[in-house]
Amino acid sequence: MKSKKLAIPYIIWLFAFTIVPLVLIATNAFQGSHGGFTLDNIAKAWSSEYLHALLYSLEIAFVSTLICLLLAYPASYIISQMKARTQAIITMLITIPMWMNILLRLLGWYILLQNGGPIHTVLSLLGIDAPILGTDAAVVLGMVYEFLPFMIMPLHTVMSKIDRSHIEAAQDLGANKFNILRKVIFPLSVPGIVSGITMVFVPSASTFIVTKYLGGMHLMIGDYIEAAFLCADRNFGAALALTLMVIIIIFMVITNRFGDEEAVGV
Fold first, then answer.
1. What is the pTM of this model?
2. Which residues of the chain have pLDDT under 50?
């Protein structure tokens, strides 16, 4: 009974800030500007212009998530092998940039990447006189910088809890380092991989701040959603948001299902 009472604030919070907004988004998505049910907003959300933005957003999110995974996996494993005090210090250093406002961090990257900035100047001295700011590469760089900690943290948490006896047993059976990684560490770290992919892919696909500062060539679906609401076209903005949300939910279901199958295989 006591545990149920403790859950009441969480249930109220979930209802007020998750269920109610979702219902409002769904309601507005199927509502015309003058009221009444309509599918025009959903049909417009799937038009070629917005479909291109959606596919571009998913592409950027996929590339950013993949790079984060490739960088975070070895880093998390190395950190998990360190002493507990060292792990705590490194974890704190990884999270410190997240204490600063995202706008200030992106502004820092804007200054670094702009023409005549430090990075562009160094590349020019090396004979590479190509603009960086305003390209897809700059957007991916900003995404990786912003969301890499969200990949490292769940991976590190899972890897630090792997029982060393499993690794020692594999070594006693003659397994080399590669086979230990492939058959012991990787299967046991799948829950962290699934959590990390979800925590990086979802915000990467829906963000709009990064493209505002570092992009310019293409708009992401988040930019169109923001523009729709700023222009008081909340019904169409809700339709875009609902479309993106459905795709993300499908992605999460598939990802979690894959993680469950891997866990069963272990």
1. 0.87
2. 264
